[in-house]
Design brief:
The chain is α/β, with parallel strands linked by helices and about 220 residues long. The chain has a single domain, classed as P-loop containing nucleotide triphosphate hydrolases (Rossmann fold). Helices cover about 30% and strands about 25% of the residues. It is built from seven helices and nine strands; from the N terminus they run E-E-E-H-E-H-E-H-H-H-H-E-H-E-E-E. The chain has helices at about 40-50, 65-75, 90-95, 100-110, 115-120, 135-150, 165-180; strands spanning about 5-10, 15-25, 30-35, 55-60, 75, 155-160, 185-190, 200-205, 210. The strands form two sheets. It has a six-stranded mixed β-sheet with strand order 5-6-7-3-8-9, with helices on both faces. It has a three-stranded antiparallel β-sheet with strand order 2-1-4, covered by helices on one side. It binds adenosine-5'-diphosphate and magnesium ion. Adenosine-5'-diphosphate binds next to helix 1. The site of adenosine-5'-diphosphate (ADP) has 10 residues, from helix 1. It holds the Pfam family ABC_tran.
């Protein structure tokens, strides 16, 4: 199993958000997790991303349990990407040295090529404070290019198109298809229609995960 959660319980202060969650995801499997707002979807994804220390249960990602190692195995695209006040290039590489070929492949797959070509300074254009000079769709595609360039085996998506209008969301979906091809994917959302190619879909309700078909908790 590429991702294995066993009896993971998570609380913010006194408030129990996740209650003995079990989840197993095979290599290259695409899993969707549906749930209403406030149900704990982002919290669950952040645990799988190695951003939160869990107090109960185990979370094993690509065979790793320590947070630093887990973070190297995953690339995350969130709902609202805050870009760094740097160039598009630096936002994609995050300061890691990468070949031009790797960067341009990521730009192309993230559907950013024609927009970047239209900018006077191209990929070295500055995105502004908190990405203020780019639209929401462009910011999401930069985040997708960053995830593609990282080339991690596991892709975690947290409502990556929900802040976008339909037309913009379509272009971002194409980029997401390129990002997720051949990867292990966990995609959390409150909208079932955004789960376009999942092998299985679970519901997150009351801190528990349910199989959408059998209705029993897993
Ligand atoms: N850092 C935090 N500190 C305290 N409570 C939080 C924090 N983050 C989220 N919560 C609470 O945890 C619950 C689940 O949040 P979240 O995982 O963001 O749900 P979802 O992504 O499904 O909307 C919500 O009630 C939210 O208010
Ligand atoms: Mg959320």
């Amino acid at each position: 199993m590429e991702i294995l959660l066993n009896k993971v319980t998570f609380t913010y202060g006194e408030k129990k958000i996740l209650d003995e969650i079990n989840l197993s995801v095979r290599k290259q499997e695409h899993v969707g997790i549906l749930g209403s707002s406030g149900g704990g979807k982002s919290t669950l994804l952040k645990i799988i991303a190695g951003l939160y220390e869990i107090t109960e249960g185990t979370c094993i990602v690509s065979g790793c349990q320590d947070l630093d190692s887990i973070r190297k195995q995953v690339a995350v695209v969130m709902q609202n990407t805050s870009l760094f006040p740097m160039s598009i290039r630096d936002n994609i590489t995050c300061g890691h040295s990468m070949s031009e070929e790797r960067i341009s492949k990521a730009v192309e797959a993230a559907q950013l090529e024609s927009w970047i070509d239209s900018l006077p300074e191209g990929i070295d254009s500055y995105v502004g404070e908190r990405g203020g000079k780019v639209s929401g769709g462009q910011a999401q595609r930069i985040a997708i290019a960053r995830a593609i360039a990282k080339d991690a085996p596991i892709i975690l998506l947290d409502e990556p198109t929900s802040a976008l209008d339909d037309e913009t969301a379509k272009a971002v979906m194409l980029a997401l298809e390129n990002l997720t091809k051949g990867k292990t994917v966990v995609h959390v959302t409150h909208r079932v229609e955004t789960l376009w190619d999942c092998d299985c879909i679970y519901d997150l309700r009351g801190g528990k995960l349910y199989d959408t078909k059998s209705k029993s908790s897993i």
